[in-house]
Amino acid sequence: MYSDGKTIQLNAGRYQAKIVTVGAGLAELTHHGRHVVIPHKPEEMPLAHLGKVLIPWPNRVANGCYHYNGKDYQLAVNDPILQAAIHGLLAWRDWQVSYQSTSEASLTIFLPPSYGYPFALSSEVIYRLDAASGLHVLIRSQNIGDESAPYGAGAHPYLTCNLQSIDSCVLTLPASEELPADRDFSASCLIGETRLDHAIKAAATRLSGRSDLPARRKICPHFYAATNPGYRSIPAKN
């Protein structure tokens, strides 16, 4: 087994994807042999949280402290530079493969209560490749504890147009909120030297992202769909 766990190969038409079990991560996605996300080798530790699924919170919790339902909680600070708890608790855990076919895979995991996050979750990530529309990703969790739990989910692919510079690409993100943001990409804007490192909230129950090259250059295919992204409370099982 590699440092990133087991590797799952998915194929559909001209699309190919590699999924790794550690972090339920997307290690590679290609279309017509062109890279859609920055790849990493399963036998090597990936850059930062490259391709990982982020549960029960994406992004950073400042100082690891948060307040929920009248109580204060302290998470372990694992980003010492910014003094924050970053990207949840499951990015470096080995997920179990519960289903696998040539074009689809389901990975599951149990998150037990801990001092910083005393809530129990059962989570699943489903990757499905479609020959026409590309890669679809469903992230869902069930609260199996006795009280409501704070919850957020995200994914960490690094978009690329076949590993070329994206400075001349145009980006559209149909989001209703940016938490916070210096640039607004709800309408198409040239990426240029812009650096993005913040969370967004979907405008509807489904969020899609697309990055296009200007005319006369190939289009990076649409590849990602998330259902109900953002932060929320999950009711208890009862």
From TrEMBL:
Protein name: Aldose-1-epimerase
Cited SUPFAM superfamilies: Galactose mutarotase-like (SSF74650)
GO terms under biological process: galactose catabolic process via UDP-galactose, Leloir pathway; glucose metabolic process
Pfam families assigned to the protein according to its UniProt record, in alphabetical order: Aldose_epim (PF01263)
GO molecular function: aldose 1-epimerase activity; carbohydrate binding
InterPro entries reported for this sequence: Aldose_1/G6P_1-epimerase, Gal_mutarotase_sf_dom, GH-type_carb-bd
Domain of life: Bacteria
